[in-house]
Amino acid sequence: MPAPSPHPDGDPLCGPGSSLVKLVEAVRGLPYGRPSDRTIDAMLRERRGTCSTKHLHLARTMTERFPETEPLIVHRVYTLDRNRARQLFGAAVAETVPADGLVDVHRYITIAVEGQRIEIDATFPGPAWDGRSPLPLACGPGQDYPAGEDPDAEKRALEQQHCDPAVREPFIAALAAASIPAGLSRSM
């Protein structure tokens, strides 16, 4: 397990001195993987997270430190086919996707920047964010559901309604396994 940051004030994930860009890049830099407890505290302690913990942390931190960004959590229900999985995540992950695809629920945020709402997906590393442009979503097109007061309960309800755990869980595990050794690079 990676060691926690020795000085939270110097940690761009939670330190008050970090810029918006440094915060987003620090979250993107965390390896993909479920913390032992699906909470922000566990994500920060274990230095890994999923779309759920990463974007919940971003939304809460931006609301506190960058209120002008007006972060909103969004859940997207989408279908991923094996070919797209191979393009995005590689052959090992694609092999976990059934021939007819899988339905997943992905969390991301939208924020206000320079008078425009943009999508931010900090699930995986990628080219450096400029602080103004959208960060491409790590999922395909689908149906978006803006989150309300309890984003985690709402995402769980969407997963129960749309996803097959016997198909989804091996996919999530393969994503985590693929991101740990060298990290994933997104160029969508």
Which residues form runs of ≥5 with pLDDT under 50?
Answer: 1-9, 181-188
Distance between the amino and carboxyl termini: 30 Å
Kindly report the average pLDDT value.
Answer: 89
Total domain units: 1
Beta-strand proportion: 15-25%
In total, how many beta strands?
4
How much helicity do the residues have? Answer: 25-40%
Main beta sheet: 4 strands, antiparallel
Q: Provide a count of the helices.
A: 7
* Shape annotation: globular
Rg result: 16 Å
Provide the spatial order of strands within the biggest beta sheet.
3-2-1-4
> Structural class of the helices, strands and pairings?
alpha+beta
SSE order, one letter for each helix or strand: HHHEHHEEEHH
Structure notes:
The longest helix has 18 residues, at about 165-180. Strands 3-2-1-4 form a 4-stranded antiparallel β-sheet. The chain has one domain (about 10-180). Helices cover about 40% and strands about 15% of the residues. Residues about 1-10 and about 180-188 have low confidence and may be disordered. A hairpin with a 2-residue loop joins strand 2 (about 100-115) and strand 3 (about 115-120). The chain has helices at about 20-30, 40-45, 50-65, 80-90, 90-95, 150-160, 165-180; strands at about 70-80, 100-115, 115-120, 140-145. It has about 190 residues and is of the alpha+beta class.
